[in-house]
Specification:
147 residues; alpha+beta; Rieske Iron-sulfur Protein; five-stranded mixed beta sheet
């Protein structure tokens, strides 16, 4: 094999593996739940984060949807009492974000945000809108004031 062919084949192999990883990440099952709006809050059951019937294993995040919300809210679980609720709207030009593991990515221009809403890669230059989260009676209560 000539050097030029070798470099070309290696380049295609690297590109193919990166695309495969991204496709597999995007196909991973993200749990979507419907929230219930009460006053200025949206409620979801704490059990939405259980990945088994024994309630011993937790998933890292759920996506909360409701017909009254223009964009979904991604809720990340860090510990029993520590959650982060982020509006899935890019701060660059308003596109709906996609979830890839523990990061949110804009399909329009490639901005990336971490699970706390901080910009990791532009062109966005502002963090995501976040909402206060508290746990009350086995419910996760997300305050939607000023959405």
């Amino acid at each position: 094999m000539r050097r030029q062919e070798f470099i070309k084949n290696c380049g295609f192999a690297c590109l193919s593996s990166n695309v495969a990883i991204l496709l597999l990440e995007s196909c991973a099952s993200s749990k979507t739940v419907s929230g219930k709006i009460v006053d200025t809050d949206i409620l979801i059951p704490l059990a939405s984060f259980f990945s088994d019937k024994k309630e011993t294993t937790f998933i890292k995040y759920v996506v909360v949807e409701h017909p009254q919300l223009k964009y979904p809210i991604c809720v990340f679980r860090f510990s029993e009492e520590d959650y982060s609720a982020l509006l899935m709207q890019c701060t660059h030009q308003g596109a709906e974000l996609q979830l890839f593991g523990d990061r949110l990515e804009c399909p329009a221009h490639g901005s990336e945000f971490d699970n706390k809403g901080q910009v990791q890669n532009g062109p966005a230059d502002r963090q995501l809108r976040s909402f206060p989260v508290i746990i009350v009676n086995n419910q996760i209560k997300i305050s939607l004031k000023n959405v």
